[in-house]
Amino acid sequence: MSLYAMSDWRVIAQYRVGMRAEFLTTVPILGARALSERKRLFNARCSLPSSFPRGSVMPTVGDYIERNRERLVAQYAEEVGQLPSARGLSYNEVIDTLPEFLDTLVKISHTGKREGLSEIALRLEETHLNLRLRLGFKLEEVTKEFVLLSRIIAELWQQRPLKERPAPEDVQLLTDQLQVFIDKAVEVFSGYSREEYQAEKHYLHRLNKLSTRLTEDPPSLATLGARLEPLVEVVQEAVQAAGAALFLADDKGQWLSAPTTCGLAAEPDQPVSLASSTFVAEIAAEESPVYLPDARYADNRVSAQARQSGLNSLLGLRLYPHGKLLGVLYVGTPHVQLFEPRTKRQLHMLVDYLAGVIERARLLAEVQQGRNRLQLLLDSAGEGIYGIDGEGRCTFANPACVKLLGYDSSADLIGQFMHDLIHHTKENGEPYPAEECPLLQTARQGKPFRSEAELLWRADGTSFYADQRASPMYEEGRLIAAVVTFVDVSARRRAEAERQALLEQTRQAVSAREETVRIVSHDLRSPLSAIQLSAGLLIRDSASYEQGHRVRRQAKLIQQSTHRMQRLIDDLTDFGNIEAGTLAISLAPHDPSALVHEATEELREAAEKKV
To answer: Which ranges does the record mark as transmembrane (predicted)?
Structure first.
């Protein structure tokens, strides 16, 4: 009784290589003839049949398959029968065309060629695949069958000595044939042929080369659309369309930019609102491809240029990586037609790849834009700005820094130890040790530094004073460098010195004037005191003089004049006190009639003389 005729094939299928214990446990279940067959298979496992001439000619793959045919079928039935879709199937449904298929592999191995025999094997496989489709097998399960078959065939000689193994080219012939079967299974189950796979690889390779150029020479955000035109042309060619158009979305997701077109595609050079009811706005809102049967009669959905472009049927898909709209792309044909599933699948694949390219290109463009703005900021800054790493070497320097230090270009500074270039000598002429340099401490220890008058040295050996600041730079919490800014304060220091000199001159002048006032006041007070004393004596003795009343009046006028002179001297002293900020004001009651009387008396004398 052969294994093919046994009714209890599932018990036989439990047999595994080298599992003698399992064999013994199945004895009560099997009949005598089945047991005999089981023993024969077990003894044949992993060993050449006695009929094979040992040591004569290297065995072929076909020899091993031919002499272990039943064992291969049994092990295949056992392992395939465990697949979810194989449960409940009969033995014949599980093995299907495997015996005939193995016979074909034997013939291919013995003849050393696949011509003619390969077609027979493919027809057997097609029969097998059609059965698997009807039984509800998945592609993964079908491909696993062929992987399993390749493994259990190879196990026949893996433990054999090298001279008893098949030739490598014979094994390669087997694996090539099994790979053809797997490719055929993929084509039958997915409608995806190897030719299509190769074509997609070709177009992906072209897109990859074009995207590499974008990476090596990043476009600006303004020129990104124009730089993407070659990639759009590849997509158009891949799906055999007559035209294609790509619209990029803005950062806020409100507008689609003026499109990049190729082939017959034509669109107005203006943005499209995503809130509109246009065809491209509809594409942006849908996850699946959007189909427009005839653009010529879609007045409200497409532009006039698109209606007149010569493209009729349109198929569009959005670019939506990581849940963010990047844009939309549509392709078109000059005829009214449906698009094949293969075309939709290819468009999906290419658009997904294109979305990744655009996302990367946009990020690079934004990074480049940020660098350009930073460089513009550095170039336009009036302060000298440079960076140093932890070793104190210059990493960048702006034009103001280069100019202030007297060099020709930043290349003269980058990579140089800045302390030795610009900070090497103290004001007194002594060397400035690098370990004492506060800028290096900022770069190495993160200590900020500020000096309003730091001595720096130019390329020509001259020096200048600078207002200098150093700030540490951190990356993810790690100290990596320091940024130094400085301005030349030599002119400011000269102006300050001149101001101090003028101030000192002013102080000396004021001091001299105060001394003069003090001397004058002292020298004037003495004669005034004598005059005032004499006037007082005249007033006292006026009664003894002829015209005594006249003498008395004149003496009083002299006395009043000396009082005014005394007040003028006091006022001059007070003026000096005002400038010095030491004037003390005393408030006291005063009779205004005395002032009026004094003024009247002074004017009386002048009036009488005129009369």
So the answer is: none
Report whether CATH 3.50.50.60 matches the domain 198-371: no
Q: Dihedral of the CA atoms 132, 135, 137, 141 (nearest 10)?
A: -60
Closest CA to 211 of 78, 328, 360, 91: 360
Distance CA 367, CA 359 (A): 12
The token pair at 378 is 């550095």
User: What pTM does this model have?
Assistant: 0.55
- The side-by-side arrangement of strands in the sheet containing 290-292 is 260-263, 243-248, 327-333, 313-319, 290-292
Contacts of 339 (CB under 8 A, 6+ apart): 289, 291, 313, 315
Residue-wise pLDDT tens digits, 113-129: 766 666 777 788 888 88
* Orientation of helix 592-610 relative to helix 548-580, angle to 10°: 120
Fold category of 3-191 in CATH:
Globin-like (1.10.490)
Helix axis angle for 490-541 and 548-580, nearest 10°, is 160
Count of CB atoms within 10 A of residue 528's CB? 17
Is 344 exposed, middle or buried, given 0-12, 13-18 or 19+ CB atoms closer than 10 A? Answer: middle
Nearest in space to 270 (alpha carbons), one of 282, 256, 289, 281: 256
How far CA 299 is from CA of 364, 443, 452, 461, in Å, comes to 38, 66, 72, 77
Class of domain 382-488: alpha beta
The answer to whether 237 and 343 have CB atoms below 8 angstroms apart is: no
φ/ψ (deg, to 5) at 20: -65, -35
Where along the chain do the CATH 1.10.490 domains lie?
A: 3-191
| Three-class secondary structure of residue 99 per DSSP | helix
Q: What is the CA radius of gyration of the chain?
A: 54
- Around Cβ 120, how many Cβ atoms within 10 Å? 15
The first and second tokens of residue 52, run together, are 């094979």
CA–CA gap between residue 96 and residue 142 (Å, rounded): 13
| Token pair listed for 59 | 């065995």
Q: Answer whether residue 377 shows pLDDT above 50.
A: yes
Query: According to CATH, where is 3.30.450.40 located in the chain?
Result: 198-371
Q: How confident is the model at residue 43 (pLDDT cuts 50, 70, 90)?
A: very low
Residue holding tokens 């996302």?
Answer: 359
Give me the amino acid identity at 328: V
Residue 498: predicted pLDDT: 87
Write the DSSP assignment of 217-255 as a string of letters.
SPPPTTTHHHHTHHHHHHHHHHTT-SEEEEEEBPTTSSE
Q: How many Å apart are CA 568 and CA 574, to the nearest integer?
A: 10
Computed from CA positions of residues 588, 592, 597, 598, in that sequence, does the dihedral angle turn out positive or negative? positive
Average pLDDT for residues 44-60, to the nearest whole number? 55
Helix extents (H) in 68-167:
69-80, 91-95, 98-111, 117-135, 139-154
Find where tokens 């002179």 sit.
565
Give span(s): CATH 3.30.450.20, the chain. Answer: 382-488
End-to-end CA separation in angstroms for the chain: 176
**Cα atoms in the 13 Å half-sphere on the side-chain side of 607:** 6
Say if residues 207 and 350 touch (Cβ distance below 8 Å): yes
- Which uninterrupted H or E stretch holds 610? helix 592-610
What would the pLDDT profile of 305-355 be if each residue is shown by its tens digit?
Answer: 999 999 999 999 999 998 899 999 999 999 988 898 888 889 999 999 999
